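Tutorial handout. Part one gives the primary structure; part two gives the three-dimensional structure as tokens.
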Amino acid sequence: MEKPLAYRMRPRNLEEVVGQQHLVGPGKIINRMVAAKMLSSMILYGPPGTGKTSIASAIAGSTKYAFRMLNAATDTKKDLQIVAEEAKMSGTVILLLDEVHRLDKTKQDFLLPHLESGRIIMIGATTENPYITINPAIRSRTQIFEVKPLTEADILTAVDHALADKERGLGDYPVHMEENARLHLSRATNGDLRSALNGLELAVRSTPPEEDGTIHLTLEVIEECIQRKALTHDKDGDAHYDVISAFQKSIRGSDVDGALHYLGRLVEAGDLAIICRRLMVIGYEDIGLANPAAAARTVNAVLAAERLGLPEARIPLADCVVDLCLSPKSNSAYMALDAAIADIRAKGSGDVPDHLRDSHYKGAKDLGRGLEYQYPHNFDNAWVDQQYLPDKFKDAQYYQPKATGKYEVALGQQKNRIEQWRKESRQKPR
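Part two.
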């Protein structure tokens, strides 16, 4: 049986890797390691289908080392021993160890000395956060790199390569894919290249050719083969972003019916990941300090939706959307941060005042670090007037509270009290 398209199109070297240019692009860390022939074991973590196996395969192809693949959950210690024996016989072996977070103590203890010696270069792959799920003994012997979801452009590039490649891809098939079908394939798979390529192959091989022999891939064909509906059958594909934009703007504008309408369209399209991400953004961008509890409830609703999956996920999502629509709104905190970032970009960072600098190391006092720091808890109201900003920013004011929710009103009142304390402090004789 022929291997799936996603398997056949795995990159043979780093130049063929789609996406992840922050790791494999020219001058980036993995590219440098390969160029210098200074490979070390690593853990790649990120969502499924984003290129963890592809990067391992490309590293092996670029270095010409032997490449083996095992699964930490299902393969045995004996399988690891076979790889270790091969490494002794032929030199370095690159081992892709999938689900590395499932590595038990027996396999780990066997593997550690081989990682230490460099005979086995392990590339662990996981969808879990390695800082939480990977044993410290393994973590300390590896570099940890995050693999990010592929962009729409990345998916389109890979799809086009697969359609053109006559050796490994679908280049021998006379395929014509409508542009809206192509865009839907790149967007509806949410950065999962494996799903996009496997859906493409199913579409090509299961679609009867037209009278002229052409295999015509329409939006409806792609929808069926990836089991994801398009938001609407528009020609240029902009509806994907238009609906998401309208969804957020309806919530921001406190229009419950509009927000539920666009939520319904996203649910019908099966875009659970997009809904969850957008609601998290809305909770902190548009509601913010006007109602922090609503933002926290959004997190809980998203967790419940992800755990439930569609169609039941629509229930906590509906609760969340109504809650956010009717909540008071404030963007004051992130607008304040953006103002601070703009200031830094315009003026540079500035020196941290000496009294705020770290004073816990030997010689800090000789440098005047932390000597005049005043501990706020030693003063009334746990507040004392001292400079916190660098000199070039010392008069800057970024946060401007809004009066759209009880919580932020209280924050504004406290800010005003602190400003009054500062004014009184500076009027006292020194």
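Part three, for discussion. The chain has a mean pLDDT of 89. The two ends are 86 Å apart (CA to CA).
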